[in-house]
Batch of 3 targets.
Target 1
Amino acid sequence: MGEKTTLFGPPGTGKTTKLSKWAKSLASKYSPEQVLICSLTRTAATEIRSRDTDVPDFNVGTLHAHCYRALEDQKVIGKEEINEWNDSYPHWQIPVDRGPDEDSATNTGGTALARYDLLRAKCLPREVLPPGVRAFATAYESFKEIHGVIDFTDMIQMAIDSVDCPTDYIIMDEAQDCSALEFKLLSKWSEQCVGEVIAGDDDQAAYEWRGASIDAFLDFSDDQRVLNKSYRLPKMVKERADRWIKHISHRKEKEYECRDGSPGVAVELDTRNPEEIIRHAMSQPGRSMLLTTCGYMTMPYVTALRDIAQPFCNPYRVRGDFASTWNPLASGGKRVVTASDSVRNYLSSPWTWTAARSWLREIADLPRGTKKRLDENKGNDELIPVDYLHSILGETGLTAALSGDLHWFMEHLKLDQKRRSMLNYRIRVGMKHGVDGFKEAPEIIIGTIHSVKGGQADNVYLLPDLSGKGVESWKENMDRAPFYRQMYIGMTRASERLFLIPPKKKALLTW
């Protein structure tokens, strides 16, 4: 059996930096190809891959990715198979876009799949499932076998059954969110390799809903080390967060210092009004995060921000069907032209053919043949001739465009209501802030606590309200550890000032 180590990284203590240095040392000792760095999310894997570790990129990735590579010739269930499933089982519809770290409980089939995944993640017998979910599981397993596909949970189970440890040393980041099944694989590999280090913080466990095993994390090894200084948390924020997390009885006590410098701020606000909270955030220096426990709870704040044409974003939610909801001012890149690109480019004359094409296509009543010529010059980085613009826009239109007149732009949009709606907020941002309003990192970040895990901001506004299911869980679970951990993660995103919003149901929670 190899040596095992647990590295505890309290908020802002430089866990990723420490792991990177550790990996570099191991690469020198065992050779770079004999060190495997794992994480639970692609974001964390990408971050470590960007560091100086000397470990080759193919040995840095998610635990699922490493398992998939080792299994070979296995096909993962994809959109085609899921669409076929949904056609065959209309009463058990499951989401098409779903990854290993995403909740699928959005409808009947999604809920059944989530419950079945949770059972497998916890290594529990199928008999404990309700009859309806058990019937779903039987049909789902039969469907996968017939179509020769596996899912993300299968990758871990198959690796446990047939994949030996691929390297001499294993590093597992975000281990506090590993399930019992994933720890079963890590334990198997630890018996076959020279050594294994897992890193995380039980106080920041965020995925108990998908089977994260806090006990397995805490009991993994006797060699437990704690990083002892936070470079993020000021004194007042750390003290408030420390008092809060002590509500949990079963946890690893960790002594670490706050960051040097100003003591920071940690106070309760006396308002729940979204407009007032946003005005307060805009009055603070630096970037601000507005955090809730559930996605739908952010909507009053998103609406209020849109109403005043205030730029906002969530840089941690850049993929998926709703990425534009959280990052409405983001650029689409080379292949995709977003509504923001159209307005941004309109305000940024002189234009290349490519830039002009992005906003000219939004204009109604252009002369016949314009679209064809613009498409012929797609990707052309030469400046578009002014005389050509004059020929299709006229004197008034050209003058308005060259001066960045967004009122003219709005008045001449096509009548497509969906597209006009998408452009409306972006145009109002341009009217209020000019092209500066479209910078990639707005000062206000909004999202759920889960979505910003690993991030930070100068100011954090934390809203503790619970969903209906959250209230039920609160009443049923006297330990309430998942909620305390969730709020702790939110609190410890603040590098300067923490503002706690009054709860809607004060009988449940007192800050």
Target 2
Amino acid sequence: MKLVYDRRGDIVDLVPLEHWSEDLFQRIRHEVDREVEGGATRVRRMWAFASRRTAGTWRYRGVFQICEPPAGAPTAGQLVADHPLVLEVAFVSSTAPMPLGLDRSVTATRRVELLLSVLLDCRFHQLPFYNEKCWVLVEKQRDPLVFGTELRQVGFTADGFVAELDDFSVAGESMPEVDVAEYWGIRGRDMSEPLSIPNTLADSLDLFFLLPPQDQNQFLRACYWFQQGDDVWRSSMSSAFTSYIQAIETLQPPPRIEDHCKRCNRPIGPDPTAQFVDFVERHAPGLPEKDRRRLYAVRSNVSHGNELFIHDEYRGFGGHFTPFESEQRHDTDTARLVARVCLMGWLVERGLAVARATQEPT
């Protein structure tokens, strides 16, 4: 059988081989259609991690639910850590649970994870889906304290954890919801406070699910780059910075062509810096133009190999206490803040435009 794919890798047609009978082909096609169409809606449960501990539950319609970890699950035992929680996400099951059903459930949880990494004021992620091992210190003796070293599998589990359910688990006490102005206006928040939800989170998610598929995918790509910045910050501030800027660029419109060169016919329009500056001004107003240009200039220098942040280049003790390192750290914090504001501003603008279009009389 010949499979025809589109540019995204999705199957758009099945073409039988020459020696196949029409009856055989139609039976196979019917079986494929039956599996692709799916079956009942089920709920996938995955471990996720946030930089604040989770207490209570929060459900978004019939799409997903955030739950505190069950009693007996391992806890971090310290404030600054990746604190476990359970993410429950609805998905359309399949008559072929492996691999189609599993793929659908993992894809559904990944989409929610990416959205929450931007729409919640914390670092939010799952563990890598692929196997990963790392060297860890293992306590060999308590008193006096003696450590050994072993290569261990990265992972997380708890006794009795069920990975798939027919419906969402019973909701407990509600997670705290905070007024959106207060939620995003707080800086230096007490890390002992549990994970909270902005009171506009459901509205933001409604706008996302109003978008057509291509816009949803574009926004999720931007969320990916934002989360990537959070993931690599400890190991590479240079990569984190460029990831935050990449998140913004993902949502920029195509280059604007204003004219063509009369000699070579090449398109003429705003350069990349100007496009970036204009996009940030539109979706994150308030940042001075010189700072917007600076962000893009730093991004260009790092991306093209002309610059590396001191955090990554100099591992000595003194390198982290210089004006240059402080400036680069400030640039990274600014890029993260501007990226989040741009992403959320784009989502509101695009989502409201779609909402207005659907309400207009035809």
Target 3
Amino acid sequence: MKTRRRRSEVALVPAFGAVLTPVRWVVLLGMLASLRLPFGREVDLQRGGVLGVIAIYAFAIAALPHLPEHRFTRTIQERLLLAADLAFSAAILLLSGGILSPYFGLLSLALIHATLLLGPRAGLCLAVGAAALVVIGEVLMPGGRGRVHDVSFAVSKLPFLLLIVWAAGRLAHQLREREAALRQSEGRALLLAAEEERVRQEMEAARRVQESLLPTAAPPPAGLAVAAHFQPAREVGGDIYDLIELPDGRLLVAVADVCGKGLPAALLAVAVQQGIRQFAQADPAAILANVNRLLLDRTPDEMFVTAACAVIDPEDGRATVAVAGHPPPLRWDDGQGRLVPLRARGPSLGLMPDWDGVSEPCRLGLGDVLILYTDGVIDAKLGSRERLGEQRLAALLGRTPPLSAQEWIDRVRDILDGCAQCPDDVTVVAVGREAARLAAPVPAVRAAA
């Protein structure tokens, strides 16, 4: 609605010419009706001549709008109609008493149309010329002292005509300025829309690239079941996870979170993922230490990375976990029926030259599950300010424990769906030792031997 209103305001100048079409016919009908009325002795109304001029003018305004478009443009048609208006006004004034004509207002209407169509300067020139012709006509007419009064009355009309034209010129100027400003704003809006579409397409391409870097579907090592959930807050995010089968058959599970969101965080996340693959080995603490050294020269001062790595032996469930400024992984102890947060701690990556974190050993029994997640999970908002938090997450997950790794992921997703909002990227990986559900393919990539 706002756009339509603005467009209608800007279109007043050409619209005035369109409005004149029915106005012209109303004026002609009114003049025909007024010819039967007495106008007084001072007005010398030549009704026969007026009828002739009306007939010629009616033919002109009926024919000019229908001129062939391939020969006469819209602008030419408007100017021909304007010429007809001016000629008609002059002829009627001449045939109906000059300055004392009851149709003197037609001249003002024609001058307003000329000003809106041709501009203020042309309108003023036409107004001065029309007033001069009226005065000259009154001077040349015979009549003695009465004519002197008419001449002075005609001269007094000059400021009135100029004022009308000046007001119409100001209106036309303001409307043209608004039209130019609107066109500029529309042009900028089109440029912005094109730029937004370009950025959207680039971000969509970046999202597909980031998804392609995540682990592809492959059977997990025998004895383990893996499930994962990845949800960036924007088109691309700063979270990554990876699943790498080491040459000795053990599974490396890594989750990392780059401080920040959007494309800069996604670019750094790719470097982190490539570093984890480059330094993949049996000791997760050594992996994180090497990635830390890799990031020192590549990470801006205001950015850092948190990560958690686990190396799991599928045969006996022995695992080693290392954490770098990351939420502690959760281990579901099926024998005791409870979730236990692991105690591995270490500073974030990319902040200091020497990363001094250590690995924590643990063991996954049959039915046990190891859950690694980013802080986007615990930062989910239950209300306007209240966070989900680690303790509430563990309580909700352990209330009715699922059976498989995928069911643990589904439980986390159900919890997040019940939150008011998830302002950060969300990544969750669950690795479980299951006896009867190991044939299903799960995401994994194999490290080069």
